[in-house]
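Researcher: We're teaching a course module on how sequence relates to structure. For the next exercise, students receive a sequence and then see the predicted structure as tokens, so they can try to spot secondary structure elements on their own. Here is the exercise chain.
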Amino acid sequence: MMSNEINSDTAKMLFKEGAIFVLLDMPEGSEFGIDYNSWTTGPNFRGVKMIPPGIHYIYYSAKGEPGQSNNCGIRTGFFRNFKQREIVVRKWDRSLEDMSPEDVSQADKERVEGNLQELDQYLGAYPYENYKKWISLTSHISEELLGKLQPECGAITSVTQFLSPPSNSEMRRQSAETLAQQENTSPSDTRKKKKLPQLQKVPGTAIRFTKIPKQRYPEGATPQQITVYSMDSTFMLDSIIQSDYSKNKRGILGEIQFAFICFLIGQVFDAFDQWKKLVHLMCGSEKALNSHSDLFMDFIAMLHFQVHEIPEDFFVDIVSANNFLTTTLQEFFSNLEAGNGDIKLRERGLKFRDHLTRKFKWDFTTEPDDYAPVIVDS
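Model: And here is the predicted structure for the students to work with:
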């Protein structure tokens, strides 16, 4: 097996051709990370150098000012496609208590570039030993996909940002009266129904994940056809590919990888939910194993890397929560065993099943409770 440690030739190449991310005025004691690697910033931290060109995920959790509570629990990040020899300069905005959303002005960037030799000693080297692992987890993420999925504001936060509920009593009264007119009830009854504030996400802050179709069958389907479609997710998968990934169907794998990184590193629960939905959709698409065999070959390889990178403590939650992963994969392997997909796909899929059984002791032969016959007492 080849070592992931960086050799002198690679180091020289990255020093010359790699990208640089400069971050000015980051509060000392904050967390800063790129891909699989994170650090607590010291007084001289100015960024990272020798970044391999390509897609990377930068994230941070800022330490509050002296006398303020530490808000390091909130992690913010963003994906960026770094170009060869690119120098990106951002600055910490004390008024926002956040990183500036845009690169610094061209004049400021030129000043930094002119002082790069002096700045070099304050830049940490990209930890190349984890780079191959990162590549395996982002192989289907493109710059175009990032433009489609990342929030309009450009930042991905671990805590959902909501608009503050209105505090003006008159606004609340008018809202209740409006709802009462819509529901044909009295304002007082409506207030009782609406005790909890109706929180709305701050516009532009949500990840723009693909919406999963709710209808599992085409319009005009007969009752018999609806029954057949309800047992197979292929119609839903094809609908997503046609509407969102018609130019490149592997984009759906990129979205699964994007969601995986956002929940694994970005700590975004909504991303975990999207990852589960898309994995479940793929595993339940029986007929698609024949029409998209090449897509599922890549799907298996992608899952192989993802399963091995989930932290052990989090992994327990994923498997035990309604037995999601084992039940979902069991459906996938059963569809392969039924003769769907070409020979190479079936061989790879069943080898993957055997590997999971050996490594994690998962049982894919016992019928899940959801599928077991219901016993009715007489």
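Model: If you want an answer key for the exercise: The chain has a mean pLDDT of 85. The beta strands are 19-24, 31-34, 37-40, 47-51, 54-61, 76-82, 87-93, 98-99, 123-125, 156-157.
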